[in-house]
Queue: 2 jobs
Job 1
Amino acid sequence: MKKDMDVDPARLEGLSFTKMVASGNDFILINNFERRIPAEWGPELARKLCRRAFSVGADGLILIEPPKSQEACFSWRFFNADGSEAEMCGNGGRCAARFAVAEGLCSSEHAFETLAGLIRAEVKGKRVKIELTPPHSLRLDLSLEIDGQKYEAFFVNTGVPHTVLFLSPEELEKLEVKSLGAKIRFHSAFAPAGTNVNFVAPIGPKELKVRTYERGVEVETFACGTGACASAIIAAKKGLVTPPVTVKTSGGETLTVFFELKDMSRLFLEGEARFVYRASLSREALE
Ligand SMILES: N[C@@H](CCC[C@H](N)C(=O)O)C(=O)O
């Protein structure tokens, strides 16, 4: 396996970064248009900076880089807190769009490149709406056996892989998301890529409550944008909700998911993305 190149703290001392949050999913964003961070440093830098209590702390690191095509105004690299690179992130994508506008890189309506494909964004102050890549790999027939118990599950890729399980609001409240989530996330049915795991309770004809165990963070996060989208389209396929769907996240904020019932190929996610602070890296944060 290729080893990540060691991050050299001296070369990154003083580099500015921005902390942002979208529905409780928090990220460190860095404008890397000048390529001060070489490609090989991404995984290790994410592990160092995302470590809570010991460094900045975040669910992920986002590097904003020059676009490869004329359609986009930037390209990104998204790293989970454990250093794994993910194809897409809905809440991170909304932060990146707002950040790129603030940095003067893009106009309020723009597109950016991710490993999943081109994402279109519309930034109106704190509110950011993005169009995800068309959902694929839908499975409505999964039966998972975990610790001798059978679970009916559903799967869709909304940029990253998502498994969805339905529960009652009471069951959802009491659920040990970390322990069941980890067992499903590493279940052989989803190897080798693994999956994010969404536990979903319908709470109205257009409303869901969702708790997500996130791949690459390996805990329940306060929200997951692509997970909210996956939960909404699967709940709609099952006839449990109709769009637009409001998703109540475990952090207490809401996300709105837009799509057509007849053709779910165009999927939109809207919610707030906020700046928390801007600072510069110290050498010690990277040692
Ligand atoms: N929090 C994100 C998803 C980030 C990627 C995920 N952890 C993965 O590795 O699949 C979102 O808001 O969509």
Job 2
Amino acid sequence: MSDKSESSAAGESGSSSRFRHLLPYLAAHKTALTLALMLSVLGAGASLVQPLLVNQVIGRVEAGQALGSLVVILAVLVVLSGVLGGLQTYILQRTGVAVVFAARRGLVRSILNLPIKEFDRRRTGDLVSRVGSDTTLLYGVLTQGLVDAAGGSLVFIGALTAMLIIDPVMLALTLSVVAISVVTVTVLSKRIRRASLEQQRRVGDLGAAVERVLSGIRTVRAANATEREIAKIDRQSRGAFEAGLEVARISAFIVPISGIAMQASFLIVLGVGGYRVASGTISLADLVAFILFLFMMIGPLSSVLGAITSVNQALGAITRIREVTTSPSETDDDVKIDLVSPSSTAAVSFEEVTFSYGDETTDDELSGQSHPSSPVLVGLSFEVQRGSRTAIVGPSGAGKSTVLALLERFYDPSSGVVRLNGTNVRDITRTSLRSQIGYVEQDAPVLAGTIGENLRLVADSATDDECRAVLASVNLDAVLGRSPMGLEASVGEDGVMLSGGERQRLAIARTLLNAPPILLLDESTSSLDSLNEVLLRDAIDAISAQRTLIVIAHRLSTVVDADQIIVLDGGRIVGVGTHSELLFTTPLYQRLAEHQLLA
Ligand SMILES: Nc1ncnc2c1ncn2[C@@H]1O[C@H](COP(=O)(O)OP(=O)(O)OP(=O)(O)O)[C@@H](O)[C@H]1O
């Protein structure tokens, strides 16, 4: 859906306005770029002097005079322009990689700060591709584009001035040919920009397709779907290939245009110039110098025309980069309070909270799409007393996880108020809100890295002893015995060394390191063996002793002794009470309990 916005963005703003967006990246390297430009001026000067010297050489040969130091100076100039060119290349490439580096840093910062709703609608692979592939294209602007154009235009202007002095008539003829080629290339360059934006978008689609398969590779293998998935990814690759071909086709028009312009100007100058030499209007030495200047002028012109592809690719890339960096990030601009001091006995309260995911995207100007959807939570009101243990139960899709998401302020309610210690969560900075709450997701993600790194995600200064202590508190200390590396032992990309129950307990241990007064636990739906189930129950018992606990329970056995159980159905509360109360008052709870052989 973001694709649509990209194309409209590309259509609306011109290349000059997008070029402006490159400036902050370039401004950071003013010194290096100025140096490169100065080297380019020197190089241009060294090149421009050469035809003048050749003119002198021819004049002296015609007059039968000795060449003397002229040849030496010519040789020195040739070497000098080579050295200057090498130095300039190094400075530019160095600046190019530094710009890519800066762009990647900025982009990663923006991506990680996007509101959670953005991750619902964006594809991870596409975001990864923006960081990896789009930023790389910025490199071309500097190394090939900008300074080639700057240095080239100096040589161009210098050569033009010399040609004007030598013979204005021949210059006018030459320029008319050049003008035709420049106009043609300018028209084509717009198409290049559009095509390369499309190409990058296709590369993003490809990244998303690969990411989708890799994240479910076991399911894909087990379903014997490898070949089908390869065929699907192949279609995305083909899309990128075809968009690349379009760029190649347009470039194929651009590149020969400069060649044709050179040949045509050369032939015209040769014909007209020969006639003017024969009629005595100009000398042979002047004609030779004019032709050398002509080549000198066309040279940069062709490299600038050639660089149009890379510059336009970069402008396409900057569109995709800015599409993320200009997206609003999760901000606390509207927030008034930094620290929450309890002003109520309720640790958490929901007051008439209604929420629909559609609201979050309806006014989404980037996608330009609206998703009017029915509310996921309707008029939800409940209180969780400090130090108590609350369970939320209900059928799949009832809205249980959404309750926790609102408490974490991943989303804000459409109406109603969510309070933490009596304060509206919208008035508390997210950092301080989240420091009060430990949150264990349903799928308990274990990040690639070591057990220690996984624990220290919430508290990077935690000591080894503290890490061991929290592992012990969730009955996970045995895991450390599995490898001589202990805390430094790695867990696989998806925590393959750990069972589902162990992953969940590792995630609980992680949040405990921060000793949050409130713990939200979205219990894993995956079935646990009886030993793991007992271990998880013990862990929950141990941690709930000192804090407020809200558990989304899929196993009623883990909640029978909760202080309060909230039964949700279709986003509404259909019952609140203890296990024994609900067995009498709430038919849905009765059914759930019977189903789980608890009644
Ligand atoms: N990010 C989202 N964007 C749009 N709709 C969503 C999103 N997350 C959940 N929903 C929808 O909201 C409803 C409630 O989802 P939620 O995950 O809160 O239910 P749940 O009771 O926790 O379910 P489960 O027990 O299966 O985890 C569902 O219909 C779901 O499809």
